[in-house]
Specification:
Layout (H helix, E strand, L loop, with lengths): L8 E5 L4 H12 L3 E6 L2 H11 L3 E5 L5 H14 L5 E4 L14 H29 L2 E6 L12 H21 L4 E7 L7 H6 L2 H4 L9 H9 L9 E3 H14 L2
Parallel strand pairs: 1-2, 1-4, 2-3, 4-5, 5-6, 6-7
Helix pairs in contact: 1-2, 1-8, 3-4, 4-5, 8-9
The structure holds nicotinamide-adenine-dinucleotide.
């Protein structure tokens, strides 16, 4: 298999639809082997089929710590370890704080932080041994700003920002890069369809147009990017623009 990610193995969470499905399909086109995770079985099967043979789907509910542990064991058993993690799965259910309850709050935090921690922790030892790896946590403006009715989502994304900064510092000695990535552009995804106004929907773009950034991070071309919060749209525009100019 040729491509910029030939020989690479990546885990992509939240791959049944939206940005995760676009990243999975782009990584497959670039030659990566893939373990794709989602709790939406039919959507996951569609992405696996669209990846054309290089992907294996793993159905799991990442809001549960036990099922996250179980799916990691299944991935390691069937696909092996991976050199790239894109932790993209998330839920955003806008809720006034007065209506928020412990269980739904922690469901959102678990999909973001708990699953991000467990995947990164499981991959860490082989990344250390192999002296390389890319941990990519999909974040949001909600990772650095507060928004009303998003207490759980903001808490989860802020926590991922902190986790990633810490892992970047510890990973530097081992060639492990850790980043957060914010979309940086309105994306046409099911999450956006639920939450965007008509005005935002008029501006949204195919999430595939944000995927060059993720390929570059999986390639680990630039260690100086570790520990940063990156903008997928700006990065992809600059990569794609430069490639078009040199074509
Ligand atoms: N859409 C936006 O405008 C926007 C803005 C900023 C950040 N983001 C982030 O970008 C990423 C992708 O967003 P999207 O718009 O494609 O979202 P989406 O809702 O369309 O897709 C999210 C995926 O995560 C999966 N998922 C959710 N809960 C899960 C669970 N418990 N277990 C397993 N899988 C689960 C869903 O099934 C889905 O396939 C997310 O991390 C989101 O927070 C999105």
């Amino acid at each position: 298999m040729s491509g910029r990610l030939a020989g690479r193995t990546a885990i992509v969470t939240g791959a049944a639809q939206g940005l995760g499905a676009a990243i999975a399909q782009r990584f497959a086109r670039e030659g990566a082997r893939l373990a794709l995770v989602d709790y939406n079985g039919p959507g996951l099967a569609e992405t696996v089929a669209a990846c054309g043979g290089s992907a294996t789907g793993f159905e799991a509910d990442l809001s549960s710590a036990d099922s996250t542990r179980d799916v990691i064991a299944r991935i390691f058993g069937q696909v092996g370890t991976a050199d790239t993690l894109v932790h993209n799965a998330a839920i955003l259910i806008e809720t006034p704080f007065a209506d928020e309850d412990f269980s739904s709050f922690f469901k959102t935090v678990n999909v973001g932080l708990q699953a991000g921690f467990q995947f990164a922790r499981a991959l860490w030892p082989t990344m250390q041994t192999n002296r390389g790896g890319a941990l990519v946590f999909v974040s949001s403006r909600s990772g650095i700003e507060g928004f009303a009715r998003e207490s759980a989502y903001c808490a989860a994304k802020h926590a991922l920002e902190g986790l990633s900064k810490s892992l970047a510092l510890e990973g530097a000695a081992h060639g492990i890069l850790s980043h957060t990535v914010t979309p940086g552009m309105y994306m046409k995804t099911p999450m956006s369809a639920r939450n965007y106004s008509d005005e935002l929907k008029a501006k949204w773009v195919d999430p595939m147009r944000l995927t060059s950034a993720f390929v570059a991070l999986a390639e680990r071309r630039d260690a100086s990017l570790s520990g940063q919060r990156l903008d997928a749209w700006a990065m992809s525009q600059s990569i794609d623009g430069a490639e078009t100019a040199h074509a």
